[in-house]
Amino acid sequence: MKKVLVLHGINLNMFGKRDPAHYGTTTLKEIDARISEWAAELGFEVECFQTNHEGEMASRIHAAHEENVDAVVINAGAWTHYSYGIADALAILKAPIVEVHMSNIHAREEFRHHSVIAGLAKGQICGFGVDSYHLGLIAASNLIKVEN
User: Fold this and answer.
1) In this predicted model, what pLDDT tens digit does every residue of 28-77 receive, in sequence order?
2) Where is the active site?
């Protein structure tokens, strides 16, 4: 069975508590449950991983390379805008990458408009709340089908 790795970056463990105007009230645990349901509907295995530690995220990405995951969906949180370490780790992957954000990063503060990940990703989905993850999984599923 194909496997998609969903990566949640820094501060995303605070979904449901942090800035509900931008991120809503759904918790990360609830988001992960929905992700599992959507993945089952799309016919692939999914693993969700969240950390607030950049080195741990890089290590999980390195492990994904060794595991030959079929696709990665990533919401790197604030790391999106400045973490060249995360970007360098993602560049190692052979699997397609889909970047997602719950809020529309292009309609927010200027510093959020730039993504160091975007150039590595097949595409970026943002601004649709929790549905950004669903759309990201659909994109990942389609990319897996195209690349195999």
Assistant:
1) 999 999 999 999 999 999 999 999 999 999 999 999 999 999 999 999 99
2) 23 (proton acceptor), 101 (proton donor)
- We report the CATH number of the domain holding residue 88 as 3.40.50.9100
**Contact predicate 24/102, CB 8 Å:** yes
Identified catalytic residue from 62, 65, 101, 114: 101
Domain that holds residue 38: 3-147
pTM of the model: 0.94
**Catalytic site residue from 8, 22, 23, 82:** 23
23 is catalytic: yes
In the annotated binding site, the residues are 75, 81, 88, 102-103, 112
Residue 146 CB contacts under 8 Å (≥ 6 apart), including other chains: none
> What does each C-alpha distance from 45 to 31, 50, 76, 100, 113 come to in angstroms?
16, 17, 21, 19, 32
How many separate domains does the chain show?
1
